[in-house]
């Protein structure tokens, strides 16, 4: 996590809002912001992977593949994954970026699982990272209060003892594009003086439309996984929802009849870090996790994209 803390009190000096309004609408108290000239998503991604290497005593040259899930790439090209690989000394790894808005980490995790299951690779690292402050308009009170910066990394290895990633269910619906997107910067509308002046390189979101689809989307993904794996809600030790908004988190938990003490929540301290929210939750709650815990990760993002991953935790916290 970046060092700089942007709290609600400071936002009150930047835009027409109040701490009470932000807490009521989102549940967010503060978020982290990456400061410093020339620092992008790879800066945080490199540090997350370095922490992971130190924690697992893994030589970076043992990494076969790095998948980076992000909507805030350092550059249009090359991939941020390749920059992270170079930054951590993963000289034998190849890599690429996955972009699926807030569902990107789940999509990357699902993809990485296939590389392990194929037997082709032994060590795959998935990085969820976003510098959302780089695409937020701090004069738009509807979006600037929500997003923060951060990164998390996860290592996948083969296992035949019944733990690890057991199933996933991912979905997309392009008709949701109009409700959550960036208007310019792509091949349809390349950058220009006009697009910059019109503030079309910032997040555009119609919050009510997103809210309306987010809860049922995550519920559908979770229920598909429960049904396919003959699981009851009581069998789930932890529900890990994308940290978009406290109302959405509570809505998903309520619909699933999951008590909040079994739902991972850290949005109050970090805001919505997009691709980093799920790995950051696992990082925050790691000491409470036990081998064999059934965990459901669910997410919803722009596009629309949504999905879930069912896993059994592989080690004691």
Structure in words:
The mean pLDDT is 97. The protein is α/β, with parallel strands linked by helices and 317 residues long. It is globular. It has helices at residues 8-12, 19-26, 41-56, 80-88, 104-117, 141-144, 193-197, 207-228, 246-255, 267-270, 277-285, and strands at 4-7, 30-33, 65-69, 94-98, 124-131, 149-156, 164-172, 180-182, 203-205, 238-241, 294-301, 305-312. The chain folds into two domains: 4-156, Peroxisomal Thiolase, Chain A, domain 1 (3-Layer(aba) Sandwich); 164-312, Peroxisomal Thiolase, Chain A, domain 1, CATH 3.40.47.10. The strands form four sheets. It has a four-stranded mixed beta sheet, with helices on both faces. The protein has a four-stranded mixed beta sheet with strand order 7-12-11-10, with helices on both faces. It has a two-stranded antiparallel sheet with strand order 1-2.
């Amino acid at each position: 996590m970046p060092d700089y803390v942007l709290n609600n009190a400071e936002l009150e000096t930047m835009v027409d809002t109040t701490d009470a309004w932000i807490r009521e609408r989102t549940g967010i108290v503060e978020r982290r912001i990456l400061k410093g000239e020339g620092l992008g998503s790879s800066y945080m991604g490199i540090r997350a992977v370095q922490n992971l290497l130190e924690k697992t005593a893994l030589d970076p040259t043992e990494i076969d593949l790095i998948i980076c899930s992000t909507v805030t790439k350092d550059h249009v090209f090359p991939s941020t994954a390749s920059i992270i690989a170079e930054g951590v000394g993963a000289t034998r790894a190849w890599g690429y970026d996955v972009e699926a808005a807030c569902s990107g980490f789940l999509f990357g995790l699902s993809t990485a699982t296939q590389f392990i299951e194929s037997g082709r690779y032994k060590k795959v690292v998935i990085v969820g990272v976003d510098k959302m402050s780089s695409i937020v308009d701090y004069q738009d009170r509807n979006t600037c209060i929500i997003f923060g910066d951060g990164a998390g990394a996860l290592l996948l290895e083969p296992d035949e003892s019944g733990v690890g990633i057991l199933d996933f269910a991912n979905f997309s619906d392009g008709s949701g594009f109009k409700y959550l997107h960036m208007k310019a910067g792509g091949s349809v509308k390349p950058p220009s003086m006009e697009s910059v002046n019109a503030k079309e390189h910032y997040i555009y979101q119609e919050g009510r439309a997103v809210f309306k689809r987010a809860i049922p989307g995550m519920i559908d993904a979770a229920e598909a996984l429960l049904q396919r794996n003959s699981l009851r809600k009581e069998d789930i030790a932890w529900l890990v929802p994308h940290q978009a908004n406290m109302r959405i988190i509570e809505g998903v938990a309520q619909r699933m009849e999951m008590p909040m003490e079994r739902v991972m929540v850290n949005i109050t301290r970090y805001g919505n870090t997009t691709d980093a929210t799920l790995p950051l939750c696992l990082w925050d709650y790691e000491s409470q996790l036990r081998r064999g815990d059934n965990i459901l990760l669910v997410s919803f993002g722009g596009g629309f994209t949504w999905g879930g991953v069912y896993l059994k935790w592989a080690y004691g916290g």
